[in-house]
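One thing: could you explain this record?
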Amino acid sequence: MTRVPKRDPDFFYILMKISIQGETGCFHEVAARQYFNYDEIEIVPCSSFDITLGKVMDKEADYAVMAIENARSGSILQNYTLIRESGMKMLGEHNLRIVQNLMALPGQSLDEINEVRSHPIALAQCMDYLKHHPRWMLVESDDTAGSAKDISENRLKGVAAIASNEAARIYGLEVMAPGIETYKQNYTRFLVVGPEESGNREGNKISICFSTGHQPGSLAKVLVKLAEMSINLSKIQSVPKFNGQWQYMFYCDLEMPKNVNAEIIKRILRDHTSDLEVLGVYYKGDMLYDS
C-alpha cells in the first residue's frame, strides 16, 4: 500500500514528526507507528485535536494522526470541521483494532482495585466487563494512556487504568485483564492529515464535503449521480453549518473505481451542490492490526 511519502531524502537523519491527541502510549501513537511502518518517527503529544492540527499548521509537526470514527461509538464530528477549516488534507487512513486492557501497579489483585480511570469512550467500550465489578468507582479522564501515566508517576495503589498494551509497557504497569472490550470487532479509523503538497495524488478513496438546497430530493440527486459513476458511498455524515439556519454540510467517503478521479467527481456534482470541497484523496486502509 502506498503511504504518505517521507519528507526529506535524508529522512534517517531528520526524524519525521507526527502530532497526536493524547499521551505517549495512547492508541493514536499505536496507529501512527503502524501507519508509518514502524519507521523512526518523533511523536508530538497534544492535549486536544485542534492543537494536534495546529502543530502541523505551525510546521512543528509534519503530519497529524487523528481518530475520525469508531465502529462502536460512531464518528467524531468535530474533527471533520476541524480538518476542513484548517486547510489541511486527508492523506491516508489506518484502521486499528482497539484492544482495551485493565492495568495497575504490579503485584496487586483485582480485589484490591477500588477505582478505574480512562477516557469515557474506553470505559463505555468495556462496560460488560466493568458491570461485573460494581464496587469499582469509574473515573473519566482525558486520555487512556494519560490515566496509565498518572498511576505510574504517582504510584497509585488500588487504582487501575484501561489503556493499550503499549501504555502498560511504557509506564511499567501490569496488565491484570487483557482484552476487556465488549465488542471484539472494535476498530477505530484514523486519518493522516497534512499539507496537500506533501501527500500522494493517487488513491482509491476520496473524502468530500458539500451542501445542498432545501428542495425535496436535493441530496437524492447527488446520491444518484454517485451511483451512476459506480462509486461506493462508504460513509455519509451531516454536520450543521454555523449560520443559524439549520443548514448542513454533508461529509462523504467515496470508494472510486479506476475510471473515476477527483476532477470527474467535482465536475459531475458541481451543478447539484454548493460549497463542494475535496478533503483528500488517499488509499483505503486495511483491517489487519491489533493494538
User: Anything to note?
Assistant: Residues 101-177 form a domain with the D-Maltodextrin-Binding Protein; domain 2 fold (CATH 3.40.190.10). The radius of gyration is 21 Å. The first strand starts at residue 16 and ends at 21. The chain has a mean pLDDT of 90.
